[in-house]
Specification:
Blueprint (H helix, E strand, L loop, with lengths): L5 H13 L2 E2 H7 L7 H14 L2 E7 L2 E6 L3 H17 L3 H9 L6 H19 L1
Antiparallel strand pairs: 1-3, 2-3
Helix pairs in contact: 1-3, 2-3
Length: 125
């Protein structure tokens, strides 16, 4: 799996949201970060070198970038790595840890149980 830093992940989020984005669009999408153009260009170049994005189009000096990895797949792999590292691949242990504290809401727990019931019903068919 491609390793993406927190800053690179923020750039990827803008590109994922837009589908394709220029450097200027990425900067506009990262207004909360207050990064300058050179910082964003460096992050884009790193992502390109890692194989996370590619140039989709070039008009003059303006490059448009598109993702080469899907957000959902990246998140899924990141979650798997985290579960392996912290919970020995046990989603159950994660859920028990997370929902044993003040973070637990009954709506979230009901949604998890509903998903489990739906999965069980689909597997029975």
């Amino acid at each position: 799996m491609i390793k993406i830093s927190e800053a690179e992940y923020q750039v990827m989020n803008v590109i994922w949201e837009k589908g394709e984005a220029t450097s200027v669009e990425v900067i506009n999408g990262l207004k909360d970060c207050k990064w300058n153009f050179n910082t964003v260009r460096t992050l884009i170049k790193r992502l390109e070198l890692k194989g996370a994005i590619e140039v989709a189009n070039k008009v003059g000096k303006a490059y448009t970038y598109r993702p080469l990895i899907e957000r959902t797949e990246y998140r899924r792999q990141l979650a798997k790595d985290l579960f392996k590292k912290l919970y020995n691949n046990s989603i159950k242990e994660f859920i028990l840890d997370y929902y044993s504290g003040p973070n637990a809401t009954s709506d979230e727990l009901k949604a998890i149980l509903k998903r489990i019931d739906e999965r069980d019903k689909n597997n029975e068919q």
